[in-house]
User: What shape does this take?
Amino acid sequence: MAHILLVDDEPEVTNAIARLLRKDYTITKCSEPENALEIVKQNDIDLVLSDIRMPVIDGVELLSQVKAYDPDIGRVLLSGYSDMELCQRAITDDIASIILAKPWDNFELKNVLRLVLNARQLQKENTELRQKLNQLSLTS
Assistant: This one.
């Protein structure tokens, strides 16, 4: 079961999303974004879903740190604001795969997370197959 880290300074948001996803995923919630990277480092996280506007560290900075730590972790932002500059930077710099608006549509959220996780799994399999191919090429 994939492990998703939910990061939002509003616990009611992480609680609502956790209720929506708990049957399909292992969920860890974090309401203090400055602690989220440590959670990523201490757990096998497959995807981080973060709010974009938070105190201390915004979601773009957090996902940038997550990407630097492990670029294979799925990264999705939730935005309740129309901060186009931050959103554009997040997509252009490949910090987030996608940005969803608050309030979110449950069906859309579940499908986007599933697609991002599937893409991550395919990427991992591709990397493993390339490594095996390289090993076979070296032994021939």
